[in-house]
Specification:
The protein starts with a strand and ends with a helix. The chain is an alpha/beta fold. The chain folds into 2 domains: 162 residues, Rossmann fold; 132 residues, Riboflavin kinase-like (Elongation Factor Tu (Ef-tu), domain 3). Helix 1 links the parallel strand 2 and strand 3. The strands form 3 sheets. The protein has a 6-stranded parallel sheet, with helices on both faces. The longest helix is centred in the last third of the chain and has 20 residues.
Length: 316
């Protein structure tokens, strides 16, 4: 079972225990295939050295400290989902370090001495481009030097898809373009949104396509507006579905409406309101569009539903 330990630099880093760690370090937003390679290398090292596999991540994203408004980067993987994935990978301990000005001001040497050495770290694994310390002045070569033999280091080279590095930035761009299928290929799993089903305007029910409505968190990325084939999980049961994400332009003024996720869940009967649900985004069907009549919208929704069924039938 994953143990989560939160650390705040201004409160000091305690000596956790006599346990020694093989530590993968990084922000790891998305936990994509590149991140998984780094973490798996740390796990392999932990087995060789007979010590515990651990991950160190940071919260919130650095952009939330240094940027404002639209400069803040939305999360691909919220913290709870990150914890679930790491637990499934076999990580023993997760250190969550608060990213604030106190952390940002630490020199590379201070970070190594005041954080890593105090945590009984015996090996550090990170991506080749990982930086640390004030203004990112520390790199993995400097990490090796600053360790002074107290811990070993491993720098993991670029993990690519085609000729391009797999990165969180690339995945954010794919989601902004609505390419959830390619996103899944880079993540090694479908992109996922988690939320509470809320009471909607019942318009889908009136059209003959009742929907489960979720309001996405403003801090977490959602795909580009449009219609998607999805899988919808509630109470541990997974259903196929077709999802519209957007502002319902046929009914609402786009500049005033709030973005919502609406899922027509196939073969489901019952009340979903107030329940936590998971949407796994499988493939993009079409962009969001405004229709000139309700009948045209109804016909298009029926067509979208059949398209989604064909896409999901191919998914193993």
């Amino acid at each position: 079972m994953l143990e989560t330990i939160e650390l705040q630099i201004d409160l000091g880093v305690p000596q956790i225990s006599d346990k020694e760690f093989s530590l993968a370090i990084g922000f790891f937003d998305g936990l994509h295939k590149g991140h998984q390679t780094v973490i798996q290398r740390a796990i392999d090292t932990s087995k060789k050295l007979g010590i515990a596999p651990a991950v160190m991540t940071f919260n919130p994203h650095p952009s939330h400290l240094f940027a404002s408004g639209n400069g803040k980067i939305g999360y691909i993987t919220p913290l709870e989902e990150k914890q679930r994935i790491l637990s499934d990978m076999g990580i023993d301990t997760l250190f969550i370090v608060t990213f604030d000005q106190n952390l940002a001001d630490l020199t590379p040497e201070e970070f190594v001495v005041q954080v890593l050495k105090k945590l009984n770290v015996r090996h550090v694994t990170a991506g080749f481009d990982f930086t640390f310390g004030a203004k990112g002045k520390g790199d993995m070569e400097q990490m090796t030097s600053l360790s002074k033999g107290v811990f070993g280091t491993t720098s993991v080279g670029k993990v690519a898809d085609g000729d391009e590095k797999i990165s969180s930035t690339r995945i954010r761009k794919l989601l902004a373009d609505g390419d959830v299928a390619k996103t899944a290929a880079l993540l090694g799993r479908p992109f996922r949104s988690i939320g509470i089903v809320v009471d909607g305007d019942k318009r889908g029910r009136q059209l003959g396509f009742p929907t489960a409505n979720m309001i996405p968190s403003e801090e977490v990325i959602v795909p580009q507006n449009g219609v998607y084939a999805v899988q919808f999980t509630v109470d541990g049961t997974r259903y196929d579905g077709v999802c519209n994400i957007g502002v319902k332009p046929t009914f609402d003024h786009p500049d005033e409406a709030r973005k919502t996720i609406e899922v027509n869940v196939f073969d489901f009967e019952g009340d979903l309101y107030g329940k936590q649900a998971i949407v796994d985004w499988i493939d993009h069907i079409r962009p969001e569009q405004k229709f000139d009549s309700i009948d045209m919208l109804i016909n298009q929704i029926a067509e979208d539903k059949e398209t989604a069924k064909k896409i999901l039938a191919k998914k193993v």
